[in-house]
């Protein structure tokens, strides 16, 4: 990291007119813990639990998982850690759980798998809740939710795990629960979903892919994959409005939050926090500290008048340059 960026590590992530935009880290590997803490992250906004599952040759058991999760919660406490339940399928494969499908991104992935296999889901939730005993910095995040029915099913299982652990004499608490907004149907139901949970977190990697019908990993259509597309920006605004109508915080944990041009727009929309890879965190903090909320809002207004992502990007880059 450059000296210049390191010098702002311990300074608050706030705009020049005093609006806080807390920055969290995305992690998944135990080796990510140190760089995340070193980057000055206020916590973990997305802990991808796929990694501890990928590096094994079978599903890790409850106790095995508990130890991994506890290490992460311990390293960051008292800072919050948002742990996402297993999100395999799509582009994330487990060698010991092969899935053969014509359209993996539209198929069996994320919460769809774990609702079909409640034993996998329950073991993971139990492991997380037990890992959280004494720290109480855990929040749960549900991936690939596409309907209220799926959310309700997941909530029933989470409450069941909590109740059963209490009956077993474990001193567990019910953590905050959030939903990932990454399927377009949830954009249009953000208001309704926000009523049932404690927070929303937008997964712009998948949301962009599904809104624009562009495979996030296909180089041939990579030019069409653009998170600054006006439709994506409008979707994000709708999510913020839906969440805030019920007083629930909303964050962005997709790669978009680590893009300086996009981060300004996300701040202007009123996103309550951003979660980025530890390698982009200080750069984004620098961006936040270089603008006023007033400026971010007026740049967003300007962007919303534009039809082409490349013009939006140009305008944002010009603003970044003006600010030094
Ligand atoms: C996303 O979809 O934006 C996201 C953060 O999750 P993942 O990249 O793990 O699918
Ligand atoms: Mg995703």
Automatic annotation (TrEMBL):
It is found in: Cytoplasm. The keyword Kinase applies. Its main location: cytoplasm. It comes from the Bacteria. Keywords: Cytoplasm, Kinase, Magnesium, Metal-binding, Phosphotransferase system, Sugar transport, Transferase, Transport. One of its GO terms (biological process) is phosphoenolpyruvate-dependent sugar phosphotransferase system. Coiled coil: none annotated. GO terms for molecular function: kinase activity; metal ion binding; phosphoenolpyruvate-protein phosphotransferase activity. GO terms for cellular component: cytoplasm. Belongs to the PEP-utilizing enzyme family. This is phosphoenolpyruvate--protein phosphotransferase. The chain holds residues 424 to 747 of 756 of the full protein.
């Amino acid at each position: 990291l450059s000296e210049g960026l390191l010098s702002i590590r311990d300074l608050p992530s706030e705009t020049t007119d005093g609006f806080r935009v807390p920055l969290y880290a995305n992690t998944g590997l135990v080796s990510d813990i140190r760089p995340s803490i070193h980057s000055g992250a206020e916590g973990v906004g997305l802990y991808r639990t796929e990694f501890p599952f990928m590096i094994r040759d079978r599903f890790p058991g409850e106790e095995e998982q508990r130890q991994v999760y506890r290490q992460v919660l311990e390293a960051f406490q008292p800072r919050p850690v948002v742990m996402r339940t297993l999100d395999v399928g799509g582009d994330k494969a487990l060698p010991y759980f092969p899935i053969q499908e014509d359209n993996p991104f539209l198929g069996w992935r994320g919460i769809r798998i774990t609702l079909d296999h409640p034993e996998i889901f329950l073991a993971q939730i139990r492991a997380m809740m037990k890992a959280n005993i004494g720290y109480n910095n855990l929040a749960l995040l549900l991936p690939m939710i596409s309907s209220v029915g799926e959310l309700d099913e997941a909530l029933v299982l989470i409450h069941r795990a909590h109740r059963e652990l209490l009956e077993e004499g474990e001193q567990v608490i019910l953590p905050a629960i959030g939903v990932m907004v990454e399927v377009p149907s949830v954009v249009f139901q953000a208001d309704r979903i926000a009523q049932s949970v404690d927070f929303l977190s937008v997964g712009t990697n998948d949301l962009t892919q599904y809104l624009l019908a562009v495979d996030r990993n296909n180089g041939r259509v990579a030019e069409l994959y653009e998170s600054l597309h006006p439709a994506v920006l409008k979707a994000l605004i709708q999510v913020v409005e839906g969440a805030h109508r019920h007083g629930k915080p909303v964050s962005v944990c997709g790669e978009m939050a680590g893009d300086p041009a996009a981060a300004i727009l996300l701040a202007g929309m009123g996103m309550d926090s951003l979660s980025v890879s530890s390698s982009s965190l200080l750069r984004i903090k620098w961006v936040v500290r270089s603008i006023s909320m007033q400026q971010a809002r007026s740049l967003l207004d300007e962007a919303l008048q534009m039809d082409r992502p490349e013009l939006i990007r140009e305008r944002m880059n010009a603003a970044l340059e003006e600010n030094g």
